[in-house]
Each structure stands twice: as C-alpha cells, then as structure tokens.
Known about the structure:
Layout: H1 3-9, E1 29-34, H2 43-57, E2 61-66, H3 70-73, H4 88-105, E3 111-115, H5 117-120, H6 125-131, H7 138-142, H8 145-151, H9 160-163, H10 165-180, E4 184-188, H11 192-195, H12 198-206, E5 211-215, E6 229-230, E7 233-234, H13 244-252, H14 259-266, H15 271-283, H16 289-303, H17 305-320, H18 328-337, E8 340-343, E9 347-348, H19 349-355, H20 362-370, E10 374-376, E11 379-380, E12 385-386, E13 395-400, E14 407-412
Amino acid sequence: MTLSEDLTWRGLIKDRTFSDVKWLDEPRKFYLGLDASSDSLVIGNLAVLMLARRLIEAGWQGILLAGGATSLIGDPGGKDQERDLKSEEEISHNIEGIKDEIEGILEGAPHELVNNLDWNADYKYLDFLRDIGKYYSMTELMQRDFVTERMGEGGSGISYAEFSYSLIQGYDFWHLFKNMGVVLQIGASDQWGNMLSGVPLVRKKEGQEVHAFSMPLVINKQTGRKFGKSEEGAIWLDPHKTSPFKFYQFWINTDDDGVEDYLKIYTLLNKEEIQNLIAEFKQNPQERKAQKVLAYEVTKIVHGEDMAKKQEKVTEAVFGGGLENLDEAEIATVREEFPNLTIPSGMPIIDILVSTGLAQSNSEARRLKESGAVYINNEKFTEDHIEASHFQNKRLLIRRGKAFKDSALIELQ
C-alpha cells in the first residue's frame, strides 16, 4: 500500500493544496510545527505526531518545529479569546518538556528538531515588514476564519500581535524551504488558515511551489466534540500530569463507535491487523477487545512497552478482582490510583466505606450495603465485616456501584 493509499484509508487527509494525493508518494522533506504553550503535549498533538511518523516511515525527511517564537505571540487558531502572553523563559522550559515527548513518539523514525526563535529573534521589524509583510494582502488575511470569528458580532476582537501570527508562520515555511529544502507542511485542520500562509509566500518570493495538507480533527462520535478529554480534563503525554494508568484507562474506555477510527489514527497497526481486530470486536463487543488493543498500543508508543504491559496487567487485576498476582511495583500503582486503607481483620464494612471515601457518611454506607451496591473483588458483598478470609495475598479491592473508578484498595495488617 502506498503512503497516499494508507493515509486515505485511515481518513488522515482533509485539506490539501495539491490536486492528486499521489503527490505524497514521492518522499521529500516536510515540517510539522508544535506550539510550546505548555511543557507537555496532549493526545490531540499525538494524532498529528503519528501522522508525521507515518510520513517518515514512508521515506519522507521530517522537521519538527518547536514554536519558540510563535508561542511568544500566541496562536489565535481555534481560540475565541486572546491568549495570555508567556515569558521567553517559560516557553524555553516548555520546549524542553515537549522535546522528550517528541523523541519518544518518533523513536526509530529519523527527524530533526528546530526552534523558530533561532531565525525570528533578531529579525528587525522594518526588515520583516519589507521582506515578508509586503507579500500579504489585508483582504486575504481578514477573511481567515479565526479573524472573522473574533472580529464578527459578539467576537472578543483580536490584537495586532495575534493577527500577525500567520505571517510569522508563513515566514517559517519560507525559511525552511530556503535553508532546508522543506516542501510540505502538515498539521491539524484547525491550523489550516495559518498553514496556508507559507505556500503563496514561497511562490511569490521564489517562484516555486510548496504544499500543505491537514488531517481532520479527531471527533468523539458520541458527543460530537473534539476527542481527547476525560472527566479530569485533558489527557497529557507527561506521566506526571496524566498517570500511565489513567492514560491507559482513557483508551480502554473509548466508545464503540469511534474505536476503529482511533486505531487507524493513533496506532501503528496495519490495515489487515485493524480489519481483523474490528471483525473480531463486532462478533463479541462486550469483551472490548478493540479497546484493549488500542489502550496497549497507544500506551506503548507514549510510555514504552514495559509500561504498557504493566498497565495491562494492573487493569486486568483490578477489573477482574484478582490482586494476588501483582508484584510490589504493580501494587504501588494501585495505591497511587485508588484510595487505600490498611485494616485489622473483622473491621465493619460501614467503617471501611466511610474511611476510604466511598461513602460520605455511615447512613450512606448502610444504604449502599443494603441495596447490594458494595463489591469485594468484583463479587457482591452483603456481610457486616471484612475478615481475613476475604483477602487475596492480604489484599482486596472494594467497590461502590458498577464504576470501577469508585474502588479502594484494602490491605490486611
């Protein structure tokens, strides 16, 4: 399968400046720009980084651009309010944070990381206006979606700084074309307006054709909203912001309607593997085989194979109610993710529910018990006390209701 056929099958081509997708089948050099407004990336960034990896593995040379300059201005795309400006020191710190994440995701896929502050920092304002600004029409710039939305009725307005963002991005493309031979920019579709800035600039200044293409934003088909948030907020790639366990759980809890799309976008599984998996999944959806493979594969890409295996084992133990085969490191993960309590044998179940926060009061705890909403090791529990015989290797998992997130680890003194 050619690159263009694979990207088309995966649904990864939305907007493009070239007429025939087969243009992608001749490897050249591309770039992907990444915002440095935070010291970690989220799974929206992961989607387009996986696109970059596919191009590199098909023979393209990849340039990953960290927006040290553009992040100082603030990308207006997809925002209905002006961003708060960040200091150069904060942006520099953020770039160091996302650099490690990029290297992990593109492991084994050769690429070069650059920072657009290196060629923007000392560019004199008048020179920029003459060399770059002269080539842009105000009529065209005013028609950009992010400008019309902010300038229209009820809009918050837009500063000259954010308005000028796309000129800097256009200059980046010209600079990379002139100095590194880059002929393609890729990104998500919410960046399309900015991505178009470089194509005409190179044509006007150099008389050469370069191109851009965007992938669609990933949408949760159940909610119709942008994919990538949990009850706790954004899903980060930094394990200190979103733990590997929570990261794995996010993927394993994805909806049935979208799981095939997520497998195509976020994993390196090929067409045959995904089609076979989805066929098996449709035969027996309650086993959630597709979600389990998705969770394992994405966690492996972001956090490494050893961590993916660990989260797979911990998840099976927690949701299967069997903690006896977990080692100390794996039990430590359970302690980090769930309330935990060490008790003597014979402690009342009411006291345990309140002490772990699974119930807010003794009366609520009694109602949970009497309604059959208390589970021990995945089995309904109706007794008044927890005894030593209920433990597996001195551990058990207590749960309130059907949701496994409402669980606590109990250990025997």
